[in-house]
Amino acid sequence: MRRTILVIAIFSISLLFGAGEPNKYLWLGIGAKSLSLGNTGVALDNLDCAPFYNPASVSERGKFSLTAGNQFLALDRRIYYASLASEVSDGAGVGLVWIHSSVGDVDARNMDSEITGTVSNGNDAIYFAFAKRVFSNIHLGLGVEYLQSSLENLTAGTAGFGAGISYRIKDPQITIGFAAQNLFMKISWNSNDYYGLGYVSDEKIYELFRGGISYRGKISAIPFVLTGDIWQFSADKI
Fold first, then answer.
1. Domain range holding 162?
2. Which of 63, 42, 45 is nearest to 53 (CA)?
3. How many domains does the chain divide into?
């Protein structure tokens, strides 16, 4: 009986996160600056959460920065994040981003619709990036990514890579950026250790390709930023 209940709960939570794909929550974006600019960030330098948008953006960022935030969404969904970034030496920089999402108070019920407890769940993502200016205006970055999903007693994770490039013009202040992420990532679920009729399922993490451009200027001594991003997922996932 309990196995049936857990399977139903797992499928319900998967639907809340978007057709069961374990990284759909990442589409919402993070960071006050990026979200205020329409969830853009591929061509924004000095961005605290740069490893999430473009690994190349952590180079030549100057002083150390540390940020954190949260989002409370519909259907009792929650997202928390923390990020840090710093220039290390000779224009090189490093950055780290952690993101957590979960659905609160998901009831577990028996066949008589009686509440028997709650179903624990959660998703975590970690992005690490290193970047350096290689030519006068060209910056290259490499990233390591880790995704983990948990549903009740089951936990599955995967590691992959990302890479990015940005071209920065100082006058006028224009930045063009490109990034490829979620490379070589796949999550495998295996319930054989917990349920009598175990099941093995593989979930593809679609590669994400981003491109963007930004322009910084001033109007009557008031600074402004114009920026735009284009996203493309592999297998025609938008």
1. 2-236
2. 42
3. 1
